[in-house]
Amino acid sequence: MEPRISLVTLGVDDLDRAVRFYEAMGLKRNTVITEGVAFFQMGGVVLGLWSREQLAADAGVANGKGAFSGMSLAYNTRSEAEVDDVLAKAERAGGRIVKPAQRAFWGGWYGYFSDTEGHLWEVAHNPDFPIAEDGSISLP
Question: Given 3-state DSSP classes, what are the helix, strand and coil percentages for the chain, each rounded to the nearest 5?
Answer without folding.
Answer: 20, 35, 45
